[in-house]
Design a protein that fits this description.
Layout: E1 14-16, E2 23-26, E3 31-35, E4 43-52, E5 58-64, E6 70-75, E7 79-82, E8 105-107
Length: about 110
């Protein structure tokens, strides 16, 4: 298991899906903040870690403070990509939400 530090194309930073939201802040201390909408009425916080699979692909696992919510993201050169089939589903907020499905890309901001 790898720490939250910079590793194989992955680095703690802010990744955002659109021009502004949803956005995921991965902090150097291993904490994350996932803000789902611009009103910040929905956000998830917790800890994350970077890992390598058997083929040396890097992925990031975000575990929320609630102990139930877990999000997986595959790491590319300049983005993280939601691995929805492994993750807790992300419900969009009715008023401001954006749908996040398997394969949704969050480019480095």
């Amino acid at each position: 298991m790898l720490s939250a530090c910079s590793y194989g194309g992955f680095k703690p930073a802010v990744y955002r899906m659109n021009d502004s939201y949803p956005r995921i802040s991965l902090k150097a201390d291993g904490e994350f903040v996932f803000v789902h909408d611009f009103a910040a009425s929905r956000m998830t916080i917790g800890k994350y870690k970077a890992h390598k699979d058997k083929d040396d692909n890097v992925y990031v696992v975000l575990k929320a403070e609630d102990g139930k919510t877990v999000y997986y993201f595959d790491v590319t050169e300049d983005s993280i990509v939601f691995a929805g089939e492994k993750s807790t589903p992300i419900d969009k907020s009715e008023e401001f939400g954006t749908e996040i499905v398997d394969g949704t890309e969050f480019p480095l901001w």
